[in-house]
Design brief:
Two copies of one chain form a homodimer. The first copy, chain A, has 133 residues and is α+β, with helices and mostly antiparallel strands. Chain A has two helices and seven strands. A seven-stranded antiparallel beta sheet of chain A has the order 2-1-5-6-7-4-3. In chain A, β1 and β2 form a beta hairpin. The longest helix of chain A has 13 residues. The interface between A and B is medium-sized, with 25 and 25 residues.
């Protein structure tokens, strides 16, 4: 699946770029929701992290079809629109992953976990990519 | 409705900020779509502009519930999440409006209209706003 990402846009997925994903989900009432979110890309999957019970967790769990935009922070006219599907969710390693994301975006691993919260990683496979710019 | 926008975030809507809206729509098959788009805000309504027949046009026409994020281009951790509803669409003045948006974002009014395309303005009323940052 990594071949879906055009080489000329792969920099948007790098840790150095620190780009956000604008993740669109569909709520149970059929209306959309969109939120900026950290991500990592492992060459095959996009991995998102949230906490159990939050709206994002509930929507990703129920409605596996997602779409997101990753925009170049240095050039708003250069971006990828990606649609994909949740193919896995796991609590295993999810605290490690949010600390890893914290390191990517903030340069340190001390992510402020809330007492009692359970982190979860959602794995998304990209199915369609359009580029602009 | 203008009172929905917190005064401390109203700068994100200014012409000077040139912020994009990340507009989430729901496709006919129930999956989401998200795209960066120009907007203007007139104190009551958010106005978006597209061309007749494009996917955005078809989705805005059929599914009036929308959501969008407006993020501070200078600080990705500062943003508004807005959900709302399409309350009007018109071709009248839509060419003027896209030229006005072009002036906001590019500093000139020479928007490159395609031969034969019909522009349309969608008016969205914000119903719920959450802020971050």
């Amino acid at each position: 699946m990594s071949s879906l990402i055009p080489e000329t846009f792969s920099d948007l997925l790098s840790r150095e770029k620190k780009a956000f994903a604008f993740l669109a989900l569909v709520k149970t009432d059929g209306s959309p929701q969109v939120t900026p979110i950290w991500f990592d890309y492992d060459g095959t999957y996009f991995n998102f992290n949230t906490a159990r019970g939050r709206l994002k967790d509930r929507l990703l769990h129920r409605h596996p079809r997602v779409a997101f935009v990753i925009q170049d922070p240095q050039n708003p006219y250069r971006y990828m629109q990606i649609s994909g599907r949740v193919v896995g969710e796991t609590e295993e390693g999810a605290v490690e992953q949010i600390c890893d994301l914290c390191e990517k975006y903030h340069g340190h691993r001390n992510y402020p976990l809330r007492p009692g919260e359970t982190r979860v990683t959602y794995r998304v496979v990209p199915e369609r990519i359009q580029t602009m710019g």
